[in-house]
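sorry to bug you again but im stuck and you know this stuff better than me. what follows is a protein written twice so to speak, once as letters and once as structure tokens for the fold. mainly i need to know what kind of three dimensional shape the backbone takes. anything you notice is useful, everything is just below:
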Amino acid sequence: MKTETTTALPVSKYAKLLELGKLVTITGAAQLIIQLIGFVSAVIVIRLLPTQEYALYTLVNTMLGTMILLADGGISTGVMSQGGKVWQDKNKLGLVIATGLDLRRKFAVGSLLVAVPVLLYLLVHHGASWLMAGLLTVALIPAFFSSLSSTLLEVAPKLTQDIAPLQKIQVHTNILRLILTSLTIFTFPWAYIAIFASGLPPVWANWQLRKTSSRYADTKQNPDPAISKEILTFVKRILPGAIYYCASGQITIWLISIFGSTTAVAQVGALGRLVMVLSIFNVLFSTLIAPRFARLPNNKRVLLGHYLRITAAMLLILSLLLAVVWLFPTQILWALGPAYANLHTELFLNIAGSCLGLIAGSSFSLYTHRGWAIKPVILIPLSIAAVAISAYFLDISTLRGILMLNICVAGFEAVMHIVFSLLMINKVTTTE
């Protein structure tokens, strides 16, 4: 019996590693295709839209991201946390997701009421007519409403690690986006046309996600008040931080749109498209790493070991990426066209800030997937202090000053989230 036990364990570990390696390969390969297609679409938009139009395009897409975060408010993380407890039961998992979908629809109303007036003001502030501002706002509606359910419908396949269908949907979505963008922008080089064209494929993707999710979760159920209460309890803890996070995550765009020029807004937006390569790591993380971390037992040694290995791997990979950017800025900027060819230093600063932001976001994702949250009375004052102190010493009316501010803020948040993660893991006492 001893011999059988000792040989079975390595085989079991080898099988798990083989399974993880297969998932990483599938997801990584799909994301390379997705990011390549997405990058081609982005370059087409950058090169064909005039600088003024691209600045408006940047503002709308930034606000769309903020609206999605506000409409979520931590609901998707709460659903993942609750779903991780019942992921093997189709009915119970479906009930959790159905409840999350109901909450998200309610949060979406508040998101629209807050975000739309701000977006209209910024668009007019940067030279758009009221008619154009209205068209741009309407153009983002398809992408916004499809996003309300897409992240929640991905919960079931992610928890069960049925990754291939998700990647297939994403590949097809980006192909459709490239086709629609190419067919429209060459004839109609206007920002609202580009935004509307890129917002239609997610509607199709949403329909496909519903079919995929239905294999593992029965979402055709009425919301459960008890589950809703549990999710909202978590949301109340995380919502103030999530609101601040969605503002600080786009701090370069917000500050440059208020204090800087329209050209600077376009430059930040164009450089932001080069950060798309980081989306590969972000998707790999949210698809493979965070759901598995949510499923880990409450064992301090297990949690700490996984957390340290994940963080160390991310630091190594992102350091190598920064080295490539430092060595080949001219070649990288070539893709954006001659209007942005002289932004060598700005490119490195932007990527460095984004890397720090990714490290902060990964730690934030890991501990919130365990149902932990920093108290807002601690998070927000400290973060605002970091922004205020950095802004005092930097010239935030310039592009370089804004990018340096982003590095300072992202660096502070990375340290804060890592320290909090370690403190919470150290408090774990239950073993399973």
In short: The radius of gyration is 22 Å. Residues 18-236 form one domain.
